[in-house]
Specification:
Number of helices of chain A: 0
Number of strands of chain B: 0
Shape of chain B: globular
Distance between the termini of chain B: 40 Å
Structural class of chain B: mainly alpha
Protein name (chain B): ER lumen protein-retaining receptor
Oligomer: heterodimer
Structural class of chain A: little secondary structure
Distance between the termini of chain A: 25 Å
Number of strands of chain A: 0
Order of helices and strands of chain B: HHHHHHHH
GO molecular function, one term (chain B): ER retention sequence binding
GO cellular component, one term (chain B): cis-Golgi network
Helix content of chain B: over 70%
Strand content of chain B: under 5%
Radius of gyration of chain B: 17 Å
Largest interface: A-B, 8 and 19 residues
Number of helices of chain B: 8
Largest sheet of chain B: none
Number of domains of chain B: 1
Keywords (chain B): Endoplasmic reticulum, ER-Golgi transport, Membrane, Protein transport, Receptor, Transmembrane, Transmembrane helix, Transport
Strand content of chain A: under 5%
Subcellular location (chain B): Endoplasmic reticulum membrane
Helix content of chain A: under 10%
Shape of chain A: rod-shaped
Chain lengths: 10, 215
């Protein structure tokens, strides 16, 4: 599955 | 989380606190572009759609709430506060920022990481943030002299994204998977827009003169 890029930056 | 990113977030927080201080202490918002503040409110609302769905950390959630809350408070103050709104330079703050919103949204429809509702709005917010300072820079050039707090506001805002670029460089070398091209390129454009402001800010600091932007 395409790793959903978690936006951990603000 | 690395030191560059943390420093960037702190500069961003300081820039907003400086702006709130200026408005609260002087009860005036002269020299501040309401359009830039509206664009920033839109940036935060469209970027933090995952505020209630994805929990990253307490720091992350608290900072998102602070950014949304403080920017909303500034927009409210500049439009509705009986004393502050009178000092708004309505006739100088005439940048047609709706074009920026439209252009960034169209760009986000073509350039995004995943074609999902949340990702398109996230990419939109990244592009919009890069150009959100334009109405403010145009207003500063039109109003000529820049008062200290407003100058510091723009300076810290530029420093925040410049430190984020250091953060992306750091992550590029430290993490095997680097997929932040949208943020990185947009962040470079954003910081480049501050370049001329930084130049004149540095000159005014060196000559200990009032910051004066050439019209």
């Amino acid at each position: 599955s395409s790793v959903v890029t978690k936006h951990d930056e603000l | 989380m690395n030191i560059f990113r943390f420093a960037g977030d702190m500069f961003h927080l300081i820039s907003i606190l400086v702006l709130l201080l200026k408005i609260y202490a002087t009860k005036s918002c002269s020299g501040i572009s309401l359009k830039t503040q509206e664009l920033y409110a839109l940036v935060f609302v469209t970027r933090y759609l995952d505020l209630f769905t994805d929990f990253i950390s307490v720091y992350n959630t608290v900072m998102k709430l602070v950014f949304i809350g403080s920017t909303a408070a500034i927009v409210w103050c500049m439009q509705w506060h009986p004393v502050v709104k009178r000092s708004y330079d309505r006739e100088l703050d005439t940048f047609r920022h709706y074009f920026l919103v439209g252009a960034c949204f169209v760009l986000a429809l073509f350039l995004h990481e995943n074609f999902t509702f949340q990702e398109i709005f996230w990419a939109f917010s990244i592009y919009l943030e890069a150009v959100a300072i334009l109405p403010q820079l145009v207003l500063l050039q039109r109003s000529g002299n820049v008062d200290n707090l407003t100058g510091q506001y723009v300076f810290f805002l530029g420093a925040y994204r410049a430190f984020y670029i250091l953060n992306w460089i750091y992550r590029y070398f430290m993490e095997q998977r680097f997929s932040r091209w949208i943020s990185c390129i947009s962040g470079l454009v954003q910081t480049a827009l501050y370049a001329d402001f930084f130049y004149y800010y540095f000159l005014s600091w060196k000559n200990n003169a009032k910051l004066h932007l050439p019209a």
